[in-house]
Amino acid sequence: QVHLVESGGGLVQPGGSLTLSCVASGSFASIYAMGWYRQAPGKQRDLVAAIRFRNQTKYADSVKGRFTISRDNATNTVTLKMNILEPEDTAVYYCKVGVFHSDTAKADYWGQGTQVTVSS
Fold it and tell me: How many Å apart are CA 103 and CA 3, to the nearest integer?
């Protein structure tokens, strides 16, 4: 199994910054993708940013130029740096990690979620 621990959420004023981190631990052969999703009240969970093998990144249009995703392979950590935060960024942010358990078996795991609130 894989265990994800998220940290870094909180309350910030519009225009401010926050950094989210997610550390993966447990039993797996390798990680092929790491990412962040968010879910606002009454809305579906949507991709915010993801990073795959060879550091290929993907961002939601609404966060391009403001958010940066990165990963540390040595510590199995994915980090989301969020700048110029807007009230519309308020949501519960979830870490998602895709792992290989063997050459052919892979699975996705979710963190418990961390609240980000952007408000004055």
Answer: 20
Which residues, 6+ apart, have CB-to-CB distance to 12 below 8 Å? 18, 85, 116, 117, 118
Greatest CA separation for the chain: 49
Q: What is the pLDDT along the chain (120 residues), one digit of tens a residue?
A: 899 999 999 999 999 999 999 999 999 999 999 999 999 999 999 999 999 978 899 999 999 999 999 999 999 999 999 999 999 999 999 999 999 988 789 999 999 999 999 999
- Cβ atoms of residues 82 and 67 within 8 Å: yes
CB 79 within 8 A of CB 72: yes
* Alpha carbon distance 23, 83 (integer Å): 21
Which two tokens mark 2?
């894989």
